[in-house]
């Protein structure tokens, strides 16, 4: 790896890689990543002081596959600490600056979809288990997934095609049959799209109307829209928070400043060295998340067990809904590109309508609004591993919204 | 009040897999520190565990060898604690869904009664790094060796079925025999491939209550386990009789002072399921396939030795209790050696000789073929027993065949009557009193004469032939 790293207000540019000259389906595609996706030799600090000055030893599987397919990495965007939430994140910034054709953004509770929303591009979170997690530095292994941001559906599809599939370095992939990602024709006449009433509770004023307008568009395009009720829906957030924080607390256990990371001075023994170093390693939001996880694990284990049971119930519930309708549509909260939400409740409120897909492992797609004024973007989902059809639906809708046939 | 002890054991057995449990680093003992490491076992960011198939197979063989029931579904959990020997803050272990449940092995208690010691479960876990404390110098330092981090272990947890240190020790010996038979572990407490923790509580004899237990660690031999348990029973009994309450805690065995001392408790919370290691599902066919890979176990082998080779049950049990000894014995039989001769020479000559030289039977320079060749010469009267014992010594130091050694060192037994006649005449002429005694019917004198002829032959004469010749001569 050669090339200077030039700090920029949005992201860290790198000079183009020589690998870009190689052929392959992604030839010439410029991709920006976040520094929580390992690329050998790149600073990989994951937005955290816990990994200050850390450089990846090897490529993540997604990076290896992108390079093999001819794509070139063009830099990494600024990110929130460990990619949790969007505080301090500039995900989408490389697209906005037209410095990249696509971005990879780890999605733990909806980060890739919200970042797409504020950038006005498509944001796709694949099904859990479809894309290798080897080399991704996250916090919530059972929920996080490598998301893709791009203005072009073709690029999203081609990138997914390249990075998806079994990986001998990630045994947690369920080993299902490879998916067929070729575009499919979704016939509106035979396709019902559902909404969940409970998912619209508490929508800010104005957004409800915009969502109604989006549903009208679906109707106009010939899709049947069916309103459904899923009373358990409000449980997604607490389940995500309890299970996610416990996993995060374990996952962050490795940041002990022994093999890498900043070591605080002044510890009189190893225990003090750990405590002092971890105190400077994490920012306030992640710290409170880790404390919360430790609390549930050590003090309220029954709550964790309950959350795991409820998670299974939520999975079954969503599965049942998608046996009645093929896709579900959700309002997409247009997140301000803010650095503000500092507390855990604020962060969770911000992701209230996206985190369900992380709990269940379903694919989810943020679709930017069409041309007509007053419309908001929408979020679409389907059953797990329905990624190809979901992308095809999104592509068709986008085409319509942009004045296609 | 009369008390009895309630003892349960937790035994860690290190599996001799080629690699670590979740990465491809070699699982090798004694290498230079920290060379067998990679991003996975050092838990660098982004690394993911890859569960080893070989570890699963070896762990399953151990379970089956202990009569345990492999579970159709088991899974890894995170045992969270932080300590410098644990680089990622949690140990991958099976807390909620262990690899096997139940099982047990037979032991013989102090009164000679057979007793089945039951297992609660067997689970897999990864070992942690090794801490080396250097106390010399102005500043004592602790070094961490990650070569051991992530190496594969099984933990065998018994029911609290033991009532005495003796039973616990018998169990450990039997367990070691069973596990060694599978070839999956050396099971040596000496080098740490078997580590034992004992949980001990006491209760009034005859009651069935379960009282607060104390865990004892740091025993380096089966003997130490017995000693530590015995010490702990005495200590707890004295404490209870003095009106004190036993508190749940962990103690360390001090082998020099022969006492247990309390250790600081490690902070340990409940285990949470690991989201990155997939659950393990074993099909009935897979389990049966594993069962078919299990060798003939010691009890069955002993039974066969009795039937097939006419050994006594004690002899058969003794031979079959060690995989290598049993295998060597059978190799001698295959070479055509009579079972009793094979057993006798193996147990009274070869094994002690190896011990003296600190050699393992598996690495013995005296292979079954070489020992068999020697024993064949003995049975054909080409050499006598004394000579055979001496040749055995030479077999350790030289690569020559027994035949070559016998010829070169002149051990060949003299059975040629012509050559012996002359010696006998000489002895008879020199020992008139003994000759007279023999003629009076004193058997002792005959033995003396045989010995004299032997001595005159330089130990090479065939005693049987001497006896025959003497008898013939003195009868006239």
Describe the structure.
The complex is a heterodimer of chains A (405) and B (476). Chain A has 405 residues and is of the alpha/beta class. Helices cover 35% and strands 13% of the residues of chain A. Chain A is built from twelve helices and eleven strands. In chain A, strand 2 (30-33), helix 1 (61-68) and strand 3 (72-77) form a beta-alpha-beta unit. The longest helix of chain A is centred in the last third of the chain and has 24 residues, at 301-324. The radius of gyration of chain A is 21 Å and the shape is globular. Chain B is of the alpha+beta class. Chain B has three domains: 3-286, no CATH class; 296-409, no CATH class; 417-475, Orthogonal Bundle (Arc Repressor Mutant, subunit A). Chain B is 41% helix and 19% strand. Chain B is built from 15 helices and 17 strands. In chain B, helix 1 packs across helix 2 (165-182), helix 7 crosses helix 8 (339-356) and helix 7 crosses helix 9. The termini of chain B are far apart. At the A-B interface, helix 6 and helix 9 of A face strand 16 of B.
Average predicted local confidence, pLDDT of chain B: 90
For the terminal residues of chain B, how far apart are their CA atoms? 80 Å
Sheet of most strands of chain B: 10 strands, mixed
Question: Strand content of the residues of chain A, in percent?
Answer: 5-15%
Helix content of chain B: 40-55%
Helical content of chain A, roughly?
Answer: 25-40%
What is the assembly state of the chains in this entry?
heterodimer
- Would you identify the CATH H-level superfamily of the largest domain in chain A? Amidase signature (AS) domain
The count of β-strands of chain B is 17
- Poorly predicted runs of chain A: 1-9
Low-confidence stretches of chain B: none
The backbone outline of chain A, from C-alpha atoms, is globular
Question: CATH class of the largest domain in chain A, please?
Answer: Alpha Beta
Structural class computed from helices and strand pairing of chain A: alpha/beta
